[in-house]
Amino acid sequence: MRLHSFASLLLLIWALGCGCSTTTRAPQLYLSHFDLKQPQIDDFETCAAAGCRKRSRLVYSESEWHSLRALFQPAPTSAAEERERLLVAIAAMETIIGEKNGTSGDNQMNQRRGSKSPQLDCIAEAANTTVALLLLEKEGLIHHHRVSYPQHRGFVHLRFPHNTAAVFELESGQHFAIDSWFFANGEQPICVPVDKWKAGYNPHKAD
Q1: Does a structural domain hold residue 14?
Q2: What is the mean pLDDT of the chain?
Q3: For 124-146, how does the pLDDT look when each residue is reduced to its tens digit (9 = 90+)?
Q4: Residue numbers of the domain that contains 191
Q5: Within a domain: 4
Q6: 118 vs 50: CA distance, rounded Å
Q7: pLDDT tens readout for residues 172-191
Q8: Can you give the three-state secondary structure of 54-94, one letter per residue?
C-alpha cells in the first residue's frame, strides 16, 4: 500500500472510531479518503480491491441508467418503500459494475475461497454503496432520505471494526445502515437501523 494511502486509512479509522460525530459530515468526505471523485453518471469511480487500494473509473450507458431509473417508477410513496427500492437498485448497480471492472465474483463478507475476482472488504463496500446512493440522490430518485456519512462499529463497541453505507429518513430522522458487505456481488444488501447495526447485527446469525 502506498504511504499516503496507508496514512489516509489510519486517519479514516481514527475518525470513524474515535467517537467523533459522523451524522453531520458530508458522505463525499468518506470518498475523498480514497481519492474517489464526486460521482456523475457518465464519470464515476468505485473501489475495485480491498481497502480501496485499486479504483475503477466507469460510466453508465444510457440503457443501463434507464434500467436503474425504471426501478423507481412509479415513485415510492413512503420511506419504507423507498428503502426497499434502494436495496434492489444497489444490487443491480453492483451487477453492472462487477461486469465492467471484474469484481462480479466478489464473495460475501471476506470469503476469498473460490473467488475468481478481487475480493472487496467493508471499507470498499461502504465506499461503493455510498457512490451508488449519491448517484441516485443526484439524479432525483431519492425523495424520502438523504445519504449519510458511512458508519463504523469497532473496538469502542467491543466489536471487530466494520463499516457500512447509511441514509437518514427525512421525516423521522431515523438513521439506517445499508450494508452490502454481508452478501456476494449483485445480492441485495441489508437495511437496519444504525443502532441495531452497531450492536453487532449480522444477517447470518440469530439476534
Answers
A1: no
A2: 88
A3: 999 999 999 999 999 999 999 99
A4: 27-198
A5: no
A6: 8
A7: 999 999 999 999 999 999 99
A8: CEEEECCCHHHHHHHHHCCCCCCCCHHHHHHHHHHHHHHHH
| Bond prior to 39 in cis (omega within 30° of 0) | no
Residue 206 domain flag: no
Task: Please determine, for residue 11, whether its predicted confidence score (pLDDT) is greater than 50.
Answer: no
Name the residue type at position 86: L
Instruction: Tell me, rounded to whole angstroms, the distance of Cα 59 from its chain centroid.
Output: 18
At CA 35, angle to CA 159 and CA 98, rounded to 5?
75
DSSP letter assigned to residue 115:
-
Single pTM value for the model: 0.86
In what side-by-side order are the strands of the sheet with 175-179? 145-153, 162-169, 175-179, 190-193
Domain count, the chain: 1
- For residue 207, is it within any domain? no
H or E segment at 31?
Answer: helix 27-32
β-pair type (175-179, 190-193): antiparallel
Report the C-alpha gap between 164 and 2 in whole angstroms: 24
